[in-house]
Model the fold of this input.
Amino acid sequence: MLRNIFAQITPHLRRRNGFLQPQPLPLIQNHLFESIYVNKTAEEWLKQLPEDQMKRVRLIQNEIALKMTEMKKTPALDRLTIADYEEMLEMSTSRRQKYYHYLFVTQTADTRSDMKKKIRDLILEEKKANIADETPKHIDYGLGKNTLLLKVTNKSVITWRNRKLHRALLLNEPPLVFDCGFQDVMSKYEIRDAARQLKYAFSENRLDRRPFVMHLCNMNKDSKLWHELAKEMLNIEKLPIKVHSEDITEVFPSKNLVYLSPDAEDVIQEFNEDNTYVVGGLVDKATRTPVTLAKAKRLNIRSMRLPLDKHIKFHSHKTLTLDQMILIMLELKRSQDWKKALQRVPKRKIFG
Done:
């Protein structure tokens, strides 16, 4: 049975120097070409590049082709996306060589994952076919037969969790706003990290019994942050999350806004459901400038900070990720107890 299965799978792979080199799969090739934040294929994007960048692209393609002839681990040219080219155009030669290996490993992992999924599906189909040949009984338990329990799939669980967010919107639960207008002060690696933290924040919010209505303000859908977020959260436009290209004061009344900034003077004493709390959607690992406080002053809205000094002694700097912020605010909304809320801060950051 497995020999027949591998005969169906292996045409999509070729062995080179002892390694499986991914071939473009016809069903997903167009998907791999597409950019998520620009409606262009990689080929169309390359045609519109200026001549100096086009020369660098040709250099990159020649490097990959040369490595292929030398039987080295290199990515497939026809599976490179616009984001891959953008990354490589900004890299030095030595760093680009490492990136080729990373792309090769990623593409190979994707191909192996597709292969394993096809093997599982074919084995399951063959098992069901063998079961169908047997004489049916009135009550018979097992694969493809009767069951005492209703199967709960991952899709059902995700749908149920999303419905909690829809219910929060219908019941006018308090909003929590992430201000995504700081992309100009973040590096591309910090932008990627911010997208990952926003994904975790959405996930943690969805798990809570009474989630916030999550808003992303200053989110331009042509931006790098949106592109990274769309890679992290597939079908993000269908998810129960509010995305606005406008600034926070254009979406919410200024009198209700409270900007949570670590540099603010005032301290939050308790959670007020009449307020709309805003979290700066940025990762600032290098400079740690008070950009969120400056934004609050520029918009003439209130700014407050968490009482971290009162309850926690940090090892070094007092930095919290976006998902940790939403966990703290969810617990504060539920219990109105700062000690419980700040237990959400990871132990590795606390002294003693």
Notes: The radius of gyration is 25 Å. The chain has a mean pLDDT of 81. The longest strand covers residues 175-179.
